[in-house]
């Protein structure tokens, strides 16, 4: 494929969505962005990276507590950055910039909504059954089964807030994406195979 394209990955906690996105980027030989977007947003704005980390995928809210906690920042006045809305705007600009510069895979951060006018953007949602997710979180975090279940329940309540607040779509609902896939059925590598073929076919005539 000669023209630039973007794959966005929405994912349930513990579904291996990040790993799948990273492998897709390797397969296509393109850039991968997850936490890297926070560093880029910090660099572009001159605002301390801690602000973006604090607001990362959380619902809009006041950042006065962050300032009260003593976070340092660049050449901006605090009145310019009282809400997560401003941070979202900065990250959105960075996402549009990287998508305009080169092909890439972007995990989370409402990238599918931000790039909704990009005709060569394929949006994927990765989910998995609870038992598969529990095993993954236990192995990844080195925690007990009970702790893993509690963490998943917490993330299932909080992760959609960011997406639902900033977009006009609903997180995790199939109609919000081009493809929704259960990674627990095929495993990471075969899920990557499946998504890769889907993307190649979907971009043929675009």
From TrEMBL:
Keywords: Kinase, Transferase. GO terms for molecular function: kinase activity. It comes from the Bacteria. This is Cytidylate kinase-like family protein.
């Amino acid at each position: 494929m000669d023209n630039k394209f973007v794959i966005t990955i929405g994912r349930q906690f513990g579904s291996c969505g990040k790993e799948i996105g990273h492998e897709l980027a390797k397969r296509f030989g393109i850039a991968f962005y997850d936490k890297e977007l926070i560093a880029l947003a910090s660099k572009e704005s001159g605002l301390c990276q801690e602000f973006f980390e604090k607001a990362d995928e959380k619902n809009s809210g006041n950042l006065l507590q962050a300032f009260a906690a003593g976070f340092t920042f660049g050449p901006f006045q605090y009145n310019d950055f009282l809400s997560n809305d401003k941070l979202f705007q900065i990250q959105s600009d960075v996402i549009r910039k990287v998508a305009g510069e080169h092909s890439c895979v972007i995990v989370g951060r409402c990238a599918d909504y931000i790039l909704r006018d990009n005709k060569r953007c394929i949006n994927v949602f990765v989910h998995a059954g609870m038992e598969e997710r529990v095993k993954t979180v236990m192995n990844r975090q080195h925690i007990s089964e009970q702790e893993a279940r509690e963490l998943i329940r917490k993330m299932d309540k909080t992760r959609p807030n960011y997406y639902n607040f900033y977009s006009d779509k609903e997180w995790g609902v199939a109609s919000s994406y081009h493809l929704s896939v259960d990674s627990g059925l095929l495993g990471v590598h075969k899920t990557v195979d499946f998504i890769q073929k889907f993307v190649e076919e979907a971009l043929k005539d675009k």
